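We store amino acids, tokens; thus:
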Amino acid sequence: MASGNAIRGTRIGSGPARFIERGEPAPRQFISYWCANDHETRPSFAMDVQPPETWDCTRCGLPSGPDREAPPDKPHAKPFKTHIAYVMERRSEADGAALLEEALANLRRRRGE
């Protein structure tokens, strides 16, 4: 059974705004961007704005460019490195051996050996 309130669930001013109320929209341009998977994305930009060189594909998330024949390359993920791998990039084996020997000497001195 319907209630007697005909405008239930609405509020004043919730209707769609007309151009008269909010002004004319800015002139738009649609630019096609293509990703490596051949997906097309067509965002719109104001006519007085310089469109960006790349845009993220809305279907797969890869970077896309305006040239369908030469889309941007897929990003390469770097392999995970442990903290030891980063330390080994900064230190030579001789430096590492010297630091280890120093740490062991400090440990022996604290233990009284």
About this structure: The chain is about 25% helix and 10% strand. Helices lie at 19-22, 83-90, 93-111.
